[in-house]
Design brief:
This is DUF2637 domain-containing protein. By secondary structure, the protein is an all-alpha fold. The chain has 8 helices and no strands.
């Protein structure tokens, strides 16, 4: 098993455990609040007694989902945080108060555990989902490692020697002159295609065009090759 496969298996296992914990904690908290409702005014209406806890516990669900949406946008939603806090504190307080004042302190702890666990488990679940979504969005695309093969014709025995034109006299070139584009190294089309994907992803993430230095580092090519690729992307 590779490292990535082990990480995926760990995330999947943690997600299953967190979902089971969230469901169990919410059910225990909800059922206890339904018992409290039956003992304080809703004994004659089982339907209303079971619906009443939703007016508290569902605030946690709504607030966590809104906070998750805000996190995906890279923003902060104070209203979502207020909904989550109100629902969580209200659920914990009513679960504990429903035990009564003439009981042992351990009974109050037992009543407080499910709503607290529901809050923490649901928060952990949203964090896992957020990590998976943002991790997938920011993951670099796979590198196309196909290399263009250039066929080189080798001279065969008996072929006439190629004519070589005399080299022209070198011209004086200022030290600040820019090399001619014709001197740029040949770039395989597959490498240009991959570089264009990197440039698009960089522009979507930063809002700026990708630089030559970034191309050189990300592609692992010499500076001259990175300049030639940048010229084709421009």
């Amino acid at each position: 098993m590779t490292k990535n496969q082990a990480e995926r298996a760990a995330i999947l296992t943690a997600g299953i455990v967190i979902i089971a914990l969230t469901v169990a904690a919410f059910w225990l908290s909800y059922a206890h609040l339904a018992d409290v409702a039956r003992q304080h005014g809703l004994a004659k209406s089982p339907e209303r007694a079971w619906a009443w806890p939703g007016t508290i516990d569902l605030f946690i669900l709504a607030g966590e989902v809104l906070m998750f949406r805000a996190a995906l946008r890279g923003a902060w939603d104070g209203w979502a945080f207020a909904l989550t806090a109100a629902g969580s504190l209200g659920s914990i307080a009513l679960n504990v108060a429903g035990v009564g004042t003439d009981t042992l302190s351990l009974d109050h702890v037992v009543a407080a555990v499910p709503p607290t666990a529901a809050l923490l488990a649901f928060g952990a679940l949203m964090r896992q989902v957020h990590g998976l979504v943002t991790g997938t969005a920011d993951a670099p695309e796979p590198v196309d490692e196909s290399v263009a093969v250039v066929a080189i014709e080798r001279p065969q025995p008996g072929d006439p020697a190629p004519e070589i034109a005399p080299a022209p006299a070198p011209a004086e070139v200022p030290s600040t002159a820019v090399p001619s584009p014709s001197a740029a190294p040949a770039v395989p089309p597959a490498l240009v295609t991959h570089a264009r994907k990197l440039a698009d992803a960089h522009r979507d993430k930063t809002g700026e065009p990708i630089g030559t230095d970034v191309l050189r580092v990300r592609l692992g090519v010499p500076a001259s090759m990175a300049d030639a690729i940048a010229a084709q992307l421009a």
